[in-house]
Each structure stands twice: as C-alpha cells, then as structure tokens.
Amino acid sequence: MQNDKLVSEQKVQDNIEIEKEGLTKIQVGDKELWVEVAETAEEKKQGLSNRASLAENTGLLFSYDQPQTAVFWMKDMFFAIDIIWIADNKIIGIEKNVLPPEPGALDKNLVSYPSPGPVDYVLEVNGGWCKRNRIEEGFSFFVRY
C-alpha cells in the first residue's frame, strides 16, 4: 500500500514537471509563477493573442535586451489580463484587469498601454492576479532559471 502511494505521488510530480517543461520560474514579490518567455520579435508580436485562457499562476514574460518604453494593446485577446511593467528587478507600474476588446473592434480603435518608463521586462498574467496576490508597484521581481 505504501509503495502504491509513493508511485502515485511520483506520477503526480512527473506530470507537474512535464506541464512546466519549456517554462521559466519567476518570482514577483513573494509569489512564484511559471512563465513562457517571449524573446523574439515574432513571439512578442503574438503575445497572448488568440488564446482562450491562461492557467492560474502562469504568465507570459516579455524580455528586452535593453531597457525601453514598451507599448501593449489587446488585439485578438479573449480574456482580461494584468500588465506588469518591470525595470531593474522592481515593478514600476501595473495596468490592472485590462479587458479584451469588443468583438469586431477595429485596430485603430484599440487602446494602447504604454509602460510608465523604460522596462527590462513586461509580465502578462490573468486579470485580477495582482489584486488576488496583493502585488503592488515597488515589489521585487526575479527570474529563477
């Protein structure tokens, strides 16, 4: 019986690792998340567009070689997100619960969300994640490879 329990626990652990394959662990404040990293221009352009959802405590991290002002929009988005602006391993701003556009909205009518200053990273998570986890401007950010 004990052996069966150990085998079962190992299968669960193996499944967790498989699900996280290809993801990077990060820490925002005292919360850990698993994220995909968008590094190429194509990955950054695609973002979370055309996805039905995002698993809780996961996200998409946009990485920049040099600090820069970043501008985001919600083109082809189907769910709300929080956009977290990061510079020098600190959150410098948060756009909370950014809603997807109305179906059929024209690109020219979409709202732009510029970073409050040059950023090294931008993190997109489910809308309301920052509020649920009490994440605020000034909190620390770390990539855990």
Structural key phrases:
single chain; 145 residues; alpha+beta; Jelly Rolls; seven-stranded mixed sheet; two-stranded antiparallel ribbon; 3 helices; 9 strands; 20% helix; disordered N terminus
Tally of extended strands? 9
Task: Please bin the fraction of helical residues.
Answer: 10-25%
> Strand share of the residues?
35-45%
CATH class type: Mainly Beta
Strand order of the largest sheet: 6-5-8-3-2-1-9
Structural class: alpha+beta
Poorly predicted sequence stretches spanning 5 or more consecutive residues: 1-19
CATH homologous superfamily placement: Protein of unknown function DUF192
Q: What is the assembly state of the chains in this entry?
A: single chain
Largest sheet: 7 strands, mixed
Mean pLDDT across all residues, rounded? 86
Number of helices: 3
Task: Assign an overall shape.
Answer: globular
Output the helix-strand order: HEEHEEEEEEHE
**Fold-level CATH name:** Jelly Rolls
The total domain count is 1
Please render the helix and strand layout as text.
Blueprint: H1 2-20, E1 24-28, E2 31-38, H2 41-46, E3 58-68, E4 71-72, E5 81-87, E6 90-98, E7 113-114, E8 119-126, H3 129-132, E9 141-144
Parallel strand pairs: 2-3
Antiparallel strand pairs: 1-2, 1-9, 3-8, 4-7, 5-6, 5-8
Explained architecture:
The structure is a single chain. The protein is of the alpha+beta class. The protein has one domain (23-144): Protein of unknown function DUF192 (Jelly Rolls, Sandwich), CATH 2.60.120.1140. The chain contains three helices and nine strands; from the N terminus they run αββαββββββαβ. The chain has helices at 2-20, 41-46, 129-132, and strands at residues 24-28, 31-38, 58-68, 71-72, 81-87, 90-98, 113-114, 119-126, 141-144. The protein has a seven-stranded mixed beta sheet with strand order 6-5-8-3-2-1-9. Strands 4-7 form a two-stranded antiparallel sheet. A hairpin with a 2-residue loop joins β1 and β2 (31-38). The longest helix has 19 residues, at 2-20. It is globular. Mean pLDDT is 86; it is low at 1-19.
